[in-house]
Records
---
Amino acid sequence: MIRPAAYAAHEEFIAPARSYPALWRLIAGLCLATFAYFSLNQVFFQALYVLLAPSGGQLLNDLASGASPAAMYILLFSFIFMSIAAGLTVRLLHHRSFVTLLGPAHLLGRDFRRVSVAVLAVTGVVLVLPPWDMGGDYVPNMALSRWMVLLVPSLFFILLQVSAEEIVFRGYVQQQLAARFRSPLVWMVLPSVLFALGHYLPDTAGENALLIAVWAGLFGILMADLTARSGSLGPAIAVHFWNNVSAMMIVSLPDELSGLALYLTPFSLDDIEALQAWLPVDFAMMLVLWLAARVAIRR
């Protein structure tokens, strides 16, 4: 059992949601946010296709899998509509501002910095330890010089993407559930189930889809724990951010979202044996980073 004192900061985080905690508002809010997000996305990509159709054939093809830097920037930018949808929802249905989804500003910035330092330190140690491959040689994907030129914008767009996901799942959904239900089994698990469903991709991951969804669900629970301990989204955004930087910019799977990666893995997303051999390692790394983040935000 987790001591109640461990989640004391969570009370300040969920306080803005207590004014309008009715469950029907959350259900309506999820419907509204989903509709707004997909509508804005549809308008954005339709406009993009109209603009690019005459001369942007290759870019349009790359958008399907994020196979180029430009395609990746467009796909990552589109997550801003998720944040907009969440902001619109809390304003219309819960009568509060978008910034209340983030937690107190001083905690957000401080804990993001602390956790970033901890995660980078642990990751640096892991990188110098064997093994130095993933069952085969990494496949070069981009020249280091070009990767360095793209470094700052790539970090910005990844931060945009992970912040949007944390704002929705650990911000809006977790806050509203915690304002209505006291049990962490509700406000930690239910948002994580939704997060896992969003990462269930049988068309691209094949038989690995369920395992990847389970990974995402457990990741969501750990991020919910960090959010409750911090009282802000800072730690969750930091861990999510550096995890995605590693997966999108350092070594990426060749099938999906590889346009910013320095290297590609020697196996693909639907490679059952290889991916299932590495997922336990990824689970272990996730737990290590979570523990490092907990230590970093300990008061």
---
Amino acid sequence: MNHVGILHHPKVAESQPLAAEIEAWLVSQQISTWQASSYDDVRLSELVAGSDLLVVLGGDGSLLRAARYASVCDIPIFGINLGRVGFLSEAQPDNWPEKLTRVLTGDFWTENRMMLSARIRRNGRILHTFSVLNDVVVGRGRQARVVRFQLHVDEDLITNYTADALIVATPTGSTAYSMAAGGPLLPPQLPNFVVVPVAPHLTFDRAIIFHEQAEIAITVHMDHRAYLTPDGTDGILLEDKDVVLITRAEESCKFARVESSGYFYRRLMGRLGYTR
């Protein structure tokens, strides 16, 4: 790898000093680098496109943001955890040199994680398109009022929901909001995604797992505000009878891993407080 990008988090105090340290270390290894904020959407598309690896400093949210750019360019991500959870990161601030050295010398494996494509259709027209690594949430805003949903899969009506929200999550997102809402945990190798209702009221209350080729359509019915929120970013205001279309995205997100493939289960049990 000859050209490595470094993304720091502008709101995490230790992020920029660590980014400078990593950049100096890479230069000493005769590797060209660039550095930018993970929130610099204007520059990132151009910067990421010419890179061999993306080093991301921050929590899982930073990695979700980086995934939008890295996946389009088919570039692996190496995460260094500066957040609270760190499910997606590969290293910590105290062990990154050893692990990053292994990645740079080719002693790593690439983990492919599926992504979802979400579109908003209104009156037959597509208004917005998003690619997400974690989840798409369709639900109410600040008002404590339920939303009614119709769930179609491959153009067949599956069920109607009355709930606060519906979560459509990838295996990556199954450890996030989906898990908090009672959804199943899916290992990252699976090509499935799951629909989980949030606080369903007198309606179907189970999560449903779908295969990778499924085409999901969620029709929203409400007389107040509802939003689509992709990967925890700012929500997009929906209107009554809007349809959210969700399929597997063409691109996937790649992570550079040096831990064994069972890291997911070890890390999950550790985060949940279950240790051997």
---
Amino acid sequence: MTVPRRRGPTAPRGTVEADSSDFSARCDGPVFRRDRLTALGYTSLAAYAYCLYALAPFLTLLRRDLDFSYLVMSLHSTTFAAGSVLSGLFFTQALRRLGRHRLFWLSAIGTAAGVVLLAVGHTVVFTLAATALLGLTGPMLQTSSLALLSVHHSAHRDRALVEANATASLAAVLAPAVIGSLGGTGSGWRAGLVLPVVALVLLYALGRGRPLPDQEGPAAGTVRPGRLPGRFWLRSAALGAAAGIEFGTVFYGAPLLVSRLDLSISHAATLMTLFAVGILIGRTAGSRLVNDQGKAPRLLTGSLLLTAAGLGIFWSSHALVLSSAALLIAGAGVANLFPLSFSHAIAAAPDRSDLAAARNQLVVNSAIMAAPLALGALSDRVGVSSAFAVQAVLIVAALLLVTVDRPASSGGAGRNPLLADRG
């Protein structure tokens, strides 16, 4: 792997810069090291992933208990995403004003508060307000973590982000399993939201006394004003389509199972655990394939094709075993769409990692807002099964965007998009 040129005299923390006299070290590149900041980023992403993947089965059970429509259920995900859009719009301003350390921990505290309020809410107005708070602070925590990892492991960004998302996938597997298994116990399923709160409290207790690198440290220069390049927006659009695919399935996979297989809501919510298991398997495998960042476009194309196969079978199946297998396949395909697309977009603006991460998050959360809302509105009109065609449209759009970008990103020396994007 070719080592990107560095502007400053020192390498980012978490890497080892090759000595100028050691030619072999230059060929091998900096060493990937998992340190305290790496663990902090991985753990915070896992806590947020639990909240995010618990939200879909939670809202499905909330709809049963409060007896509201699919559209109202989608309004919760839309409210969440609207808060997320605001967090993406104001992330860079908040980072400049508060610094990385305070922003990270305020986001963690706000996320824990949003989860608690959602768990105790018994009216739609209250749960919508709690979802808005969670939507504002949760993605802020996610963006802070991803930006921290992107800067901290700039030479191994793909690997760090895939590993971080693999760790988050463990929590994503746990969330629907816990919420779904408690779904038949009256209102006891609300207690399933306790776990991320406990994790965030422990994270705060263990890490608050150790400051994160701020603007004058390794993050210096990553929030510069100015326009991001056009290639960034092309890749970010593909990231948005990938997010719509993932969360359209997360929020409407269970309703489709209920519609097609006549399962109970709690059974369908529990079965969606297979989708998260597929994601975990895919990210575990993906972490072994991303040592060369130049593989990102090919891995994205392969992941999209695997997703298309899995969701196609899931959409058309009327058999429990086939639907279960399709969820695993779709999860394995979806697994690396987000981390690779996110990293691939940041590679187009490596000297503005925080700004690029914030704009990526804005695009992602706009997609999370739009895709479930479209599925919800269409489901009320034409049924869940017909509405699921939205997923096919998003897959085709993502494939087109990745294909259009490939000639620009696959050519040149070294097959390293960081070098290509530096021009």
